[in-house]
Amino acid sequence: MAEEQNLLIPNEDYLKSGIHIGTKFKTRFMKDFIYKTRQDGLSVLNIEAIDARLKTAIKFLARYDPHDILVVSRRENGWKGVKKMAELLGVKHFAGRYPPGVLTNPRLDAFVEAKLVLVSDPWPDRNVISDALKIGIPIVALCDTNNQANNIDLVIPCNNKGKKSLGLVFYLLTKGIMEERGLLNKGQAPPFTVEDFTEE
After folding, report:
1. What local confidence, expressed as pLDDT, does residue 32 receive?
2. Strand order across the beta sheet in which 92-95 lies
3. What is the rounded distance in angstroms from the CA atom of residue 5 to the CA atom of residue 106?
4. Are the beta carbons of 137 and 117 closer than 8 angstroms?
5. What local confidence, expressed as pLDDT, does residue 2 receive?
6. Measuring CA to CA, which residue among 1, 9, 2, 3 is closest to residue 164?
7. Disulfide engineering: 140 pairs with which of 22, 70, 135, 154, CB 3.0-4.6 Å?
8. 112: which DSSP letter?
9. Long-range interactions of 141-144: CB distance < 8 A, separation 24+
10. What CA dihedral angle connects 187, 61, 45 and 197, to 10 degrees?
11. Domain locations in the chain?
């Protein structure tokens, strides 16, 4: 029970979002975050590990000026969460296809300067990861059991495909960063909900 009280949200809220449901494929990078494999072959992520990494990510991201953070989601289920995070925190964002070179080529109209990138999935968001590696800035990524995480500086294990799961992750990150930066009192109900971050 003590563990439960230290979680960012109640365990059942994590479970309802499906944040812990992985894929049938698992990489060696993600094995430490996997709690078990179900009979249907799906891997199940450890809720406590997810929660711990979210807390680490919140503290890490909160150290950066929001204008120096670029949040990217090629996956449509993450678009609403990315846009809401940008609206509330002032981070830069790409919801949709990230054109290669945005971080590395100042001659591009879409050129963006950033000191950190956050991506919703290392595979569809590989263009921005490639650019971030070229300029040597940290990469934080939501990673499912099937992700290669060798180029990621901070992995947040989660179901990075489901609408509810992605909505919850972006909600918790935004709320946590706002608390760390003194924009919200800890424990205070924020003026937004998980639904504001979740695709219909």
Report:
1. 92
2. 92-95, 69-73, 116-119, 139-143, 154-157
3. 47
4. yes
5. 42
6. 9
7. 154
8. -
9. 142/166, 142/169, 143/29, 143/30, 144/22, 144/23, 144/30
10. 70
11. 2-19+47-181+193-197
For tokens 């002032």, what's the residue?
90
pLDDT in tens, 139-188: 999 999 999 999 999 999 999 999 999 999 999 999 999 999 999 998 88
Q: Render pLDDT for 60-75 as a digit per residue (tens, 0 to 9).
A: 999 999 999 999 999 9
The CATH architecture one would assign to domain 2-19+47-181+193-197 is 3-Layer(aba) Sandwich (3.40)
Here the tokens at position 15 are: 């479970």
In this structure, what are the phi and psi dihedrals at residue 35, rounded to the nearest 5 degrees? -85, -45
Q: What tokens does 188 get? A: 């205070």
Report residue 1's pLDDT band, with 50, 70 and 90 as the boundaries. very low
Q: Which structure tokens are listed for 96?
A: 């949709």
Q: Find, among 142, 145, 168, the residue nearest to 12 by Cα.
A: 168
Please give the single-letter amino acid code of residue 78.
G
Distance CA 194, CA 33 (A): 24
Residue that has been written with the tokens 């490639």 in this structure: 130
